[in-house]
Amino acid sequence: MKRLCPIFVLATLLIAQPLSNSLCLAVQNNDQPRTVEKNQKMEYAIAIHGGAGSSPAQFSQEANAMRRASMRAALKIGSEILKSGGTALDAVEKVCLLMEDDPQFNSGVGAVFNSDGSHELDASIMDGSNQACGAVAGVSRVKNPIQLARLVMTDTRHVLLAGQGAEKFAAEKGVAMVEPSYFDTEATLKAWQRFRAKSGDSSSQTDVEKIKIFNEDTGSYMGTVGCVALDKNGNLAAATSTGGLTNKKFGRIGDSPIVGAGTFADNETCAISGTGIGEQYIRHAVAYDVSAQMKYKGVSLKEAIDNNLASRLNQGDGGLIGVDHDGNIYMAFNTQGMTRAAADSSGRFEVLWDEAVNYGESTKVEK
Amino acid sequence: MKRLCPIFVLATLLIAQPLSNSLCLAVQNNDQPRTVEKNQKMEYAIAIHGGAGSSPAQFSQEANAMRRASMRAALKIGSEILKSGGTALDAVEKVCLLMEDDPQFNSGVGAVFNSDGSHELDASIMDGSNQACGAVAGVSRVKNPIQLARLVMTDTRHVLLAGQGAEKFAAEKGVAMVEPSYFDTEATLKAWQRFRAKSGDSSSQTDVEKIKIFNEDTGSYMGTVGCVALDKNGNLAAATSTGGLTNKKFGRIGDSPIVGAGTFADNETCAISGTGIGEQYIRHAVAYDVSAQMKYKGVSLKEAIDNNLASRLNQGDGGLIGVDHDGNIYMAFNTQGMTRAAADSSGRFEVLWDEAVNYGESTKVEK
């Protein structure tokens, strides 16, 4: 046995990798800032989603053009922050803030109606360098929930504030407050009315068929917004903001304000934002699972996201965007469509709003 | 090379195991009931915690005896349900319900006071056979939050309902409602007054030192309750119920109602309930991470819990109880103490309420 058996060498390498992961774990004491090696592939990278759900064929050409233009504007703002050396945290917050102010998306103005005919907004933000995070749920009078989520992160000892408590904190912090009717749009009102005409007050229903009725409605779209970014210092961040599901039960909290479900970031692995049927993302801890698969199984961001969309979530549940510590971007969904955009330091700058390929068979669209 | 090199054999086995995990993943389509093989080691197993925090040395002998008696009563009820062929889901709900009605624990009556001098209760429950789950957060008038959490799971399309929305649902379902003052006890009122006298209105503080002041207070105890169980059909379930942290900010939601943070169950791996500084459990998706480490790294329940307590959470953050699909029970903590109890079909039936061994160095106590 003078020459090393190639299979033996391969086997040893495969063993060594999980072992080195375990060793990393042993010294990883949380809450200490962690930065990745500076040999990251991209200097910076950013990905954005404007929600998963219907396909562009279900909207007018004009509506699709407007949505693309808004995605482009958000991508420009986010990528310029990163290009000029700004933090990933600032980039994801500013992108979500811009989209919250855009009535085309289901976050901030344009948020969907709940079963009581009002709005309850959810948002979260996470810093991958130290696992710091903040979130708000069920706010009805805070103009920009993502801004309040960041204040929960920086100015309280808590992670998640809900309802009136969150609004009391918002008032203390002097963030912009609005009347709940500020969030109304004609499109969301009509979508809510159509939903109720078709399925009645479905607030107590368990039948997922009722949700499908809504998904088949051409006006339907789970237009949650989210952003993930890697900055020049190797720090990752993620943020998500939403009005939730049309006709959701009053008081319902989805995945967007739940760290580990709809949002997650860890410099060691990736930053993730999800969009879709939030209950499924909570149940399967989807955003955290992508990171866990990368860390514990050693798979790529793409594989970890694909595993979740193909084997953990059901078809039609939603989509995910992610950026890993090297700056690799991956965006995929198992719905008919997902508005998304990506830019990085290689010069990539693109907005995607297309049909799923072979929806119903292979449901993922890679880009 | 007529004889197989022993290292090569070992290496092959180590590779084969993660590969078989990957294959399992590929066929695991969620929401389908999953049962484990019926050769589980124990016919049934159950573990309960009554919160982590102070050590028994900080309470009177009489108080400790009362707490032990309550844990024993809860363990008896839970284990008898399982012994007689009842479901894990029924066992964990009934145990939490009994403890919610016991003023010694920080759940139901006996829940701590928040910064507004009121109570906001959180609870969640999860069925490991199909990932169904339900949770409530920030309820102030529902006598038994765990009962309402189960109704969210069974009677809505949602996972998490909060505040007034959750209470409206409770009223629709006809569950027992109470005045908020029902939850008051002299002990929790005094603890809250001591906390405020020492640290002021700390609702906006970020400094964890303030929390330590509270932890050093002999009356302090994060007495969240939780239960995990394996039934004779091989199904796992987990439940957690709490009043949260003393003087928590109005509207704050901790980990107990967050599936993946404070509660998780999956027949493939384990059922988990946590207790401690909820923000840390959310940030690190602790309950789900235990399951993910078992599934993706192939480690035992004990290793996965120990990894979380030693390397992901900080010392003093809290504790975890778990039961795996074979009926192995593990309960550990990195605080000064944790009330806990365990029973299984081998005849084990014990309540533990002891000092941490070498608190400050090795912080885990195994039993």
Notable features of this structure?
homodimer; 367 residues; alpha+beta; 8-stranded mixed beta sheet; 4-stranded antiparallel beta sheet; 10 helices; disordered N terminus; disordered C terminus
Write the layout of secondary structure elements.
The structure is a homodimer of 367-residue chains.
Chain A: H1 6-27, E1 45-53, H2 61-83, H3 88-100, E2 121-127, E3 132-139, H4 145-155, E4 160-162, H5 163-173, H6 186-199, H7 208-216, E5 225-230, E6 236-242, E7 252-253, E8 263-265, E9 270-276, H8 278-283, H9 286-297, H10 301-312, E10 318-324, E11 329-333, E12 337-344, E13 349-352
Parallel strand pairs in A: 3-4
Antiparallel strand pairs in A: 1-5, 1-12, 2-3, 2-6, 5-6, 8-9, 9-10, 10-11, 12-13
Helix pairs in contact in A: 2-3, 3-4, 9-10
Describe it.
2 copies of one chain form a homodimer. Chain A has 367 residues and is α+β, with helices and mostly antiparallel strands. Helix content of chain A is 36%, strand content 21%. Chain A contains 10 helices and 13 strands. Chain A has an 8-stranded mixed sheet with strand order 4-3-2-6-5-1-12-13. In chain A, a hairpin with a 4-residue loop joins strand 10 (318-324) and strand 11. In chain A, helix 2 (61-83) packs antiparallel against helix 3, helix 3 packs antiparallel against helix 4 (145-155) and helix 9 crosses helix 10 (301-312). The longest helix of chain A has 23 residues, at 61-83. Chains A and B meet through helix 1, strand 3, strand 4, helix 5 and helix 7 of A and helix 1, strand 3, strand 4, helix 5 and helix 7 of B.
